[in-house]
Amino acid sequence: MGHKPSRIVEWIKSAISKGKLKEPFTPKDVYNAIPKIPLMTCHTFLPKHREGNPFGNMVYFVRVKTGTYKLK
Questions:
Q1: For the chain, how far is it from start to end, CA to CA, in angstroms?
Q2: d(C-alpha 3, C-alpha 65), whole Å
Q3: Could you give the count of Cα atoms lying within 13 Å of 40 in the half-sphere of its Cβ?
Q4: Up-side HSE of residue 63: CA atoms within 13 Å toward CB?
Q5: What's the rounded Cα separation, in Å, for the pair 48 and 5?
Q6: Share of the chain above pLDDT 70, in %
Q7: What residues does 69 pair with on adjacent strands?
Q8: In whole angstroms, what is the distance from residue 45 CA to residue 26 CA?
Q9: pLDDT exceeds cutoff 60 at 42
Q10: CA-CA distance, 20 to 13, in Å (whole number)?
Q11: Is 31's pLDDT higher than 70?
């Protein structure tokens, strides 16, 4: 299921603004708030787009601690 990164980030922002998702969040929290994003995608997307990711991907999140993130 190939969702555009910006769409996933918009869904996360929307879930936070609606009170469905609280920061900091885990991949499972994101999945529970936005079930249209597959759980495996939640587990890979957040670290892939965190500040300091080793691949130089676009940064959308800050890792609070291992497995826990907030919006940048």
A1: 25
A2: 26
A3: 2
A4: 13
A5: 10
A6: 96
A7: 25, 63
A8: 11
A9: yes
A10: 10
A11: yes
Token pair 């769409």 is found at 7
- Mark out the alpha helices in 1-72 (DSSP H runs): 5-17, 27-33, 39-48
This prediction has a pTM of 0.91
The CA distance from 21 to 29, in Å, is 7
Instruction: Decide if 43 contacts 52 (C-beta within 8 A).
Output: no
Nearest to 4 by CA among 51, 43, 41, 56: 41
Phi-psi region of 51 (alpha: psi -120 to 50; beta: other; left: phi over 0): beta
Q: What is the token pair recorded at 18?
A: 């609606």
